[in-house]
Every structure is written in C-alpha cells, then in structure tokens.
C-alpha cells in the first residue's frame, strides 16, 4: 500500500513528460530548448567559441607588442585595412584589447562559467526537475547569444569595434568623433552589453529562485554542496550589481546620442568647443566600478565552488571547514560591494575615503585566505586522485595565491599611485581572475563532462592540456609584474619605442611566444572536448565516486532528471572516507540507518531517539569508538 | 488525482512569484544606482543642484497612481471572492488610470520644455529628472502589460488558481511601481 502511495505522484509526473516528448522536435530539443541540461550545453559551447576568439585576439596584439617594427603580410590578408602593410593599426590595437577584455570577462567567464554550471548543477545537485522558470532560462540563453553575435559583428563594420577599453570610460567612449573605436562600434558594444545584462539577470533570478524554492526533501541549506552555495551567492551578487551598470549605460547612451552632459564637461576637439558642460567623468567610474568590482567575484566565485567540490571528491576527504567555506563566500559577497573605490585611487579621491576603501579591500584577504587554507588542508594527507579536473582545481589554488598576493600590493592606496594602469595590474588580474577562473571552468568541464555528454574525456590529453596551459600561464603573466614595477603602462600600442622601456622588447617576445604555446595547448583541449562528445569512452553513472545527487541520475538524459521520485537527502555532501564505512564515499541519499557502523554523534543533530538507537547498536556490535563519541 | 495536480501547480507557482520579487529587487538597485548618481552629481557644487520647481503635474500623477493601487487591490479582492465582473471592472479602471498617469508625466515634461527647462541641459540634475521619469514610465508600461495579461485571463475560462495567480503578480508589481514613483517624487522634492 505504502509503495503505491509513494510511486503514484512520480508515475503521474512521468506521464506528463512522456506526453511532452511526443511533441519534441529538433527545434525544441536542441535550439529553443527549455531543458536546463541542454541550455547548460548551449552556454558552454558558445562560451568555448567566444573564448577561442578572445584568445586569438590576444595573440594578435601580443604579436604587435613583440614585433612592433616587423611586417606580417598575412595580417593584411586577414584584417585588410585594420593592418595596413602587415602591421596592426594603432586604433585597431585598442579595439582588440577592448574586445578581448569584454569577451573574456563577460561572455566567457560570466555567461560561459555561471551559465553552464549553474544551469547544469543547480537542479541536479538540489534534486529539482528543472529551473523555476524554464522559459526565462531559455530566453536568458538567447539574449546571451544575440549579445555575442552583436559583439562579434562589430568586426565587420566600416569603422571598427569599440576601442575605449572594457571599462569604456567617458569622455573617450561618450564622443563618437573622439576616435574610430568610439563610433558605431561603441554603440553596438553598448547595445550588446544591455542585452547581456538582461540575460545575466534572467539567469541569476532563476538560479536564486530555484535554490530557495525547489530543493528536494531533506536538502536544507547546510546540506547543499559548496558549488551550489557559490552559484547562489554569485547570482545574488549579479542581481545586486548588474542593474547599476544598466543605469550607467543608459546615461552614457544619452550622452552619446542625445547631447546630455552627465559625464561630459569642458571638452575641446580639434579646436572646436563642445557645448556639454557640468558633467563628471568620475561619476561613470563610480557607477561602473560598483558593478565592475562585484563582477570580479561573479567571475571567481563559481570557480571557487567548483574547486571545492572537485578537490574534496578527488582527495577522498571531507572538505576542510565546510561552514568556514560558506561564511567566507558570504563575506566575499558582502565585501565585494564596498571596495569599488580601490579602482579610483588616482581620480583625485579624498585620501580619507581612499583609506576607507583600502581597509575594506584588504579585509577581503581574510575570507580569501580562509578558502586557500581550507583547500590546502583538504589536500593534506588526502588519498589524492590526480584526474585532469583535480589538476586544474589545484592549478586554480596556485593562481589564487600568486595573483591574490599582488592584490594586497594594489589595494594599498599609496602603492597603487605608482602601480595604477601598469602591467603590474595586468599581471595581477590575469592571474587571480583570468587564469584562476578559467582553470576553475576547465576543472568543471573535465569533472562534469560525463554528466553532460554521457562520455568520458581522454585523461592523457587532459594532462598534456593542463601542464602546457599551467606553465605557459605563469610564463606569460609572471614577467609582467616586473614590467609593471618598472612603470610600463598597459594598453600602449608600442611602448618599447620609449627609450626607457626599450629593454622590455626581449621580454615582450618571450611573453608572446609563451602565449602562443598556451594557445596551441588549447588545441589538445578542443580536440579532446569535441571528439569525446561523439566518440569518448561511455561513462558509468558515478565515474568519480562522488556523493552528490547529480550522480544518482541515469546517464541517459531525460526531461525531469529522475525517472521516478526525486531522491531524498539525508546527509551533507562530503562524507568521504568516513571511518567505519566499507566504501570511501557515502551518497547523500543514503540514510543513517544504513550506515550504522560509521555514524557519529553529531550526525544526528541532537535527535535523542536516533542517538539511543545508535548507542544500542554500538553496544550490540561492540563498536567501541563510536559508543564513546555518542556518549 | 485532481488534488495531486493542484499540489503540483502550487509547487510550481511559488518559485515564479519569487522570481517577481527578485526582479523587483534588481529594479530597486537600478533606481538606487540612478539616484545615487544624482546625489554624487548634485553634491559636486553650486549650479549643479535641482534649482527649478518640479511641474505641478507630478502631484496629480502621484494622486492618480495611488488611486490606481487601490482600484487594483479592490479588483484582487473581488477575484478572491469569485466576483469576476468586479475583477474586470477594477482591472479596466486601473489600466485607464495607468495610461492617464503616463499622460500626466508627459504633460509634466511639456510644461518644463515650455519653460525652457530642457532634457539636454548643462545642469544634468534636470536631465536626471527626465531620466528618472522616463525609466519609471518604462516600468509602468511593463506593469500595464502584466495587467493586460490578468485582464485576458479574466475573460478566458481558466482555473481560478491561474487567474488569481496572475492577479497576484499584477498586484505585486503594480504596487511596486506605485511605491517606486512615490520614492522618486519624494527624493526629488527633498533634493530641490
């Protein structure tokens, strides 16, 4: 009787879905899909394509930096008038830098990372059939796709893509006549970003609503995997910061196209005085960085969450300090909103205010260090399995440390006056945000590939990919610290023409070749990724022997995720190598009544009846260790 | 079986209502961004503050939108009591009041431009007022679209759960844009 009662709702649910399957066409299954797993794959593949493009762009401008005097006829064939006589045009160089930054920060590491893994893992790890609003989820992807197309199409217009840097500071970005990169390309950049923000908001709102409302039975907040905590807090940061960017962009559009003076004042172009008066370009910086700094954590936090999960699973140990990990994420979330001023130390900011921002900035080192030490403590004496995902996760920890340390330099107002806008900043954020986040993303791809595509990626190619990428990333970004300390400014087309900086040309060549090595290494990944989708080794249901809910779903995807009832959760997600249990992992769905030999007192959360049953069992089975702990 | 379906429906509606709340939070942040931009700008020195009186039309529009909140709430109560004629009447009145509100705001702009207080202004505080009202009108239009969907469902033979749910969504959002306008208006009055 009771079995029927339990299975009935599941059966009716299943009927609903098989009914829906009749109507499924190619268009609704692969293109306008509302299934979170398919949307995750769409985000991932679009993100990878955008990443490859942005990487190619970086190689282009690295070639210019290394060989400012040489001509590459091939460039003229490829880029036409943007590379006259085989040398990059100096304005086009600025566009390349801008688009590289925009695509990497927003399209790859925000949409590609959050969009993929939040969509894939939130329903699967929480035990939900889909997102709160699958339709809005689909819209979110298509807004993102449209934004991507508009952003890339600026390469095909008469003038050139936006060129004012990814932070598009006015007045450069506000005056179409200022330079070629401020014309139509900038307008399209703004349109693309408004669509992108709409996409991010729809995604983020969906993630938060799903996490708070659609967890399965037994999955209270403190039983959620750290990935979910990270995605959840990332989505909150996005909801609270992206609208401010829209507000800033709306004002910028009015300045550009309608003639208002929010950001413009006292400007003379080619002897002609502009009518705009009274505006403040610093206002833009306040509004932009109120988004811009949280954005850094939107990029990084999902990567940290993925790393927590991958490191715990592959160390076969519970994550060290689960609660501390959550509280440090919350701490980073809160602090991320009160540090934006550290990007503006040189805007003539009141030194007292600068001091306040300096203190809040340096406090972020505390939760970040908590996370780092917890990663290391999880690895310590673990039974480590060096899967490719694990290597990339450890790589993230390495970049997080080496890049984070320079953050302490830059956060100091006094030091920043020297280091502002030098290659030291470039080195810092490429290590701590760029490399760390991309390693987190790659780690996630290697780890959850079997869940996404039902097949395994080749591990040997994964190792090759990891080592080449890891080494080349350090070879590229580490020398930049020294350039920055010497005062080499970022975004310059040919700074080695300055006599005092000419000596850096050899270093530039070295960095460029290291970057080319890193780019070539991605071929190993791309081949591995696309080959394995079709021809990889078939995956088992739980290839990494992990404890979380997504590995209880069948390998073959189905709408609604679980064929029967959604499983119930009984324990936290990190029961690895629990003493007294026969295997070294216990699924979240295993009740304590089935693991009597390994239960500990705190597992029962003060439930006296359960403790009594446990101690009775312990005396009967002579389970001495646990008996003492229960008492 | 029927009760089970309702159970599933109830389960699906709660997260969707939550989505509306989250959307409103992001809207609040948007206007917080704009108004703090205003504060930073107008605090920058003399000649940058809001030095002209707001159009009188804004008082009337404030009264209108407050009334429209009451009419919508009345319509919601009628729906709850299954009096669908009252629901339709209330929604229509709210819709008309919303349109009148937009008209009043635009009339306010016309009054200002007649006085020579233009959107394109070397005192951006005044441009800010135009931006506040314009972006708020966009929210009003979104609210009107939601009211139209509620109106459409009141004419269809839908289960009352769906009908009431759409009414709830419409009410939540409409009261929100109402309060949002009051916030903006009081904010502008205080910074004159």
UniProtKB/TrEMBL annotation, chain A:
It is a multi-pass membrane protein. One of its GO terms (molecular function) is heme binding. Residues 622-631 have a biased composition (Polar residues). The keyword Metal-binding applies. Keywords: Electron transport, Heme, Iron, Membrane, Metal-binding, Respiratory chain, Transmembrane, Transmembrane helix, Transport. Its main location: membrane. Gene3D superfamilies: Cytochrome c oxidase-like, subunit I domain (1.20.210.10). The chain crosses the membrane at residues 43-65, 92-117, 138-157, 186-208, 228-254, 287-307, 319-340, 352-377, 389-411, 423-449, 461-482, 510-530. Belongs to the heme-copper respiratory oxidase family. This is Cytochrome c oxidase subunit I. It comes from Pedobacter cryophilus.
TrEMBL record, chain B:
This is Heme-copper oxidase subunit III. Residues 17-192 form the Heme-copper oxidase subunit III family profile domain. Keywords: Cell membrane, Membrane, Transmembrane, Transmembrane helix. The chain crosses the membrane at residues 21-41, 57-77, 89-108, 128-151, 172-190. Signal peptide: none annotated. It comes from Pedobacter cryophilus. The keyword Cell membrane applies. GO terms for biological process: aerobic electron transport chain. InterPro entries: Cyt_c/ubiquinol_Oxase_su3, Cyt_c_oxidase-like_su3, Cyt_c_oxidase_su3-like_sf, Cyt_c_oxidase_su3_a-hlx. It is a multi-pass membrane protein. One of its GO terms (cellular component) is plasma membrane. Belongs to the cytochrome c oxidase subunit 3 family. One of its GO terms (molecular function) is cytochrome-c oxidase activity. Its main location: membrane. It is found in: Cell membrane.
């Amino acid at each position: 009787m009771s079995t029927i009662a339990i299975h009935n709702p599941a059966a009716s649910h299943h009927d609903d879905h098989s009914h829906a399957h009749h109507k499924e066409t190619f268009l609704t299954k692969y293109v306008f899909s509302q299934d979170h797993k398919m949307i995750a794959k769409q985000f991932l593949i679009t993100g990878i394509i955008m990443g490859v493009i942005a990487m190619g762009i970086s190689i282009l401008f690295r070639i210019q930096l290394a060989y400012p005097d040489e001509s590459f006829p091939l460039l003229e064939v490829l880029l036409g008038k943007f590379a006259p006589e085989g040398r990059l045009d100096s304005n086009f160089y600025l566009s390349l830098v801008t688009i590289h930054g925009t695509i990497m920060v927003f399209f790859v590491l925000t949409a590609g990372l959050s969009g993929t893994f939040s969509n894939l893992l939130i329903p699967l790890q929480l035990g939900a059939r889909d997102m709160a609003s699958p339709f809005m989820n689909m819209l979110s992807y298509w807004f993102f796709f449209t934004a991507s197309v508009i952003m890339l199409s600026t390469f095909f217009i008469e003038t050139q893509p936006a060129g004012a840097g990814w932070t598009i500071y006015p007045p450069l970005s506000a005056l179409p006549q200022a330079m070629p990169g401020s014309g139509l390309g900038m307008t399209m950049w703004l349109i693309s970003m408004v669509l992108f923000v709409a996409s991010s908001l729809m995604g983020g709102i969906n993630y938060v609503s799903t996490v708070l409302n659609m967890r399965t039975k037994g999955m209270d907040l403190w039983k959620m995997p750290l990935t979910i905590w990270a995605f959840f807090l990332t989505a909150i940061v996005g909801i609270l910061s992206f609208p401010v960017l829209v507000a800033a962009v709306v004002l910028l559009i009015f300045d550009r196209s309608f003639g208002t003076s929010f950001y413009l004042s006292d400007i003379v172009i080619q002897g002609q005085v502009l009518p705009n008066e009274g505006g403040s370009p610093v206002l833009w910086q306040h509004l932009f960085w109120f988004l811009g700094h949280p954005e850094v954590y939107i990029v990084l936090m999902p990567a940290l969450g993925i790393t927590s999960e991958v490191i715990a699973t592959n160390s076969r140990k519970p994550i060290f300090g689960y609660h501390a990990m959550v509280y440090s994420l919350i701490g980073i979330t809160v602090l991320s909103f009160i540090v934006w001023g550290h990007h503006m130390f040189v805007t003539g900011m009141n030194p007292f205010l600068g001091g306040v921002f300096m203190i809040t900035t340096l406090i972020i080192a505390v939760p970040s260090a908590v996370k780092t030490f917890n990663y290391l403590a999880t690895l310590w004496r673990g039974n480590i399995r060096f899967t490719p995902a694990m290597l990339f996760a450890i790589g993230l920890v390495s970049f997080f440390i080496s890049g984070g340390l320079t953050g302490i330099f830059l956060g100091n107002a006094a030091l920043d006056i020297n280091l502002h806008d030098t290659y030291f900043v470039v080195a810092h954020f490429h290590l701590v945000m760029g490399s760390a986040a991309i390693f987190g993303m790659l780690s996630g791809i290697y780890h959850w590939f079997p869940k996404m595509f039902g097949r395994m990626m080749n591990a040997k190619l994964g190792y090759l990919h990891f080592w080449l990428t890891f080494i080349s990333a350090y070879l590229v970004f580490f020398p930049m610290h020294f350039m920055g300390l010497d005062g080499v400014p970022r975004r310059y087309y040919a700074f080695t023409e300055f006599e005092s900086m000419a000596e850096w040309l050899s270093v530039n060549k070295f960095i460029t070749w290291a970057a080319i090595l890193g780019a070539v290494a991605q071929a190993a990944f791309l081949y591995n990724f696309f080959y394995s989708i079709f021809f990889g080794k078939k995956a088992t249901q739980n290839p990494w022997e992990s404890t979380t809910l997504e590995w209880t779903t069948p390998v073959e995807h189905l709408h609604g995720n679980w064929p029967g009832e959604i499983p119930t959760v009984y324990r936290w997600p990190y029961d690895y190598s629990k003493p007294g249990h026969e295997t070294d992992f216990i699924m979240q769905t295993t009740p304590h009544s089935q693991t009597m030999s390994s239960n500990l007192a705190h597992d029962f959360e003060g439930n006296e009846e359960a403790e009594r049953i446990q101690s009775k069992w312990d005396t009967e089975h002579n389970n001495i260790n646990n008996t003492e702990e229960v008492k | 079986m029927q009760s089970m379906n309702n159970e599933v429906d109830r389960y699906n509606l709660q997260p969707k209502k939550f989505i509306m709340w989250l959307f409103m939070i992001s809207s609040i942040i948007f206007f917080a961004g704009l108004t703090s931009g205003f504060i930073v700008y107008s605090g920058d020195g003399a000649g940058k503050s809001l030095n002209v009186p707001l159009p009188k039309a804004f008082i009337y529009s404030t009264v209108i939108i407050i009334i429209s909140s009451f009419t919508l709430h009345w319509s919601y109560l009628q729906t709850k009591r299954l009096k669908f004629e009252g629901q339709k009447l209330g929604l229509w009145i709210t819709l008309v009041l919303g349109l009148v509100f937009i008209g009043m705001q635009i009339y306010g702009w016309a009054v200002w431009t007649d006085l020579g207080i233009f959107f394109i202004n070397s005192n951006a505080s005044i441009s800010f007022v135009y931006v506040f009202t314009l972006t708020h009108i966009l929210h009003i239009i979104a609210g009107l679209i939601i009211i139209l969907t509620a109106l459409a469902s009141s004419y269809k033979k839908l289960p009352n759960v769906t009908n009431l749910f759409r009414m709830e969504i419409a009410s939540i959002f409409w009261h929100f844009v109402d309060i949002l306008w009051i916030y903006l208006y009081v904010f502008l009055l205080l910074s004159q």
